[in-house]
């Protein structure tokens, strides 16, 4: 599964050697089917589409690996009972963005713990 490039301009990686599996871009992903059942899946990318595909395919696949160029911050959908984007938007405008980002990343670390707990590389705070 490849989830890089924009929906209208999918980009496919080139690998040395012979890959006998199936390539699919998130643009063409319509949901998991029996074809995904018991498979080992590699999702390349870490944006919204990649994470959506990884979660959906994890329901039926044997294993799902998420490959990303650099560590990302994964926010939960809800923080303190409200959508995380709404929670983040409620921070006062007078606080500089760099301070907001630092505070939110610390909060996520406190709530979710180390990314190593999930088999992911540690992100820098």
From TrEMBL:
Keywords carried by this UniProt record: FAD, Flavoprotein, Monooxygenase, Oxidoreductase
Pfam assignment, any one: FMO-like
Cell cycle among keywords: no
GO molecular function: flavin adenine dinucleotide binding; N,N-dimethylaniline monooxygenase activity; NADP binding
InterPro entries, per the entry: FAD/NAD-bd_sf (IPR036188), Flavin_mOase-like (IPR020946), FMO-like (IPR050346)
Family membership: Belongs to the FMO family.
PANTHER family noted in UniProt: DIMETHYLANILINE MONOOXYGENASE
Name under which the protein is recorded: Flavin-binding monooxygenase-like domain protein
């Amino acid at each position: 599964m490849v989830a890089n490039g924009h929906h209208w301009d999918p980009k496919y990686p080139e690998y040395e050697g012979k890959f006998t599996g199936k390539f699919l871009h998130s643009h063409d992903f319509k949901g998991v089917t029996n074809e995904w059942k018991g498979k080992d899946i590699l999702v390349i990318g870490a944006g919204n589409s990649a994470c959506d595909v990884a979660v959906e395919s994890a329901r039926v696949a044997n294993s799902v690996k998420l490959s990303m160029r650099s560590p990302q911050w994964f926010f939960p959908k809800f923080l303190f009972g409200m959508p995380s984007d709404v929670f983040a938007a409620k921070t006062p405008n007078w606080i500089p963005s760099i301070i907001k980002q630092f505070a939110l990343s610390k909060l996520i670390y406190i709530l979710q713990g180390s990314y190593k707990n999930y088999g992911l590389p540690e992100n820098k705070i």
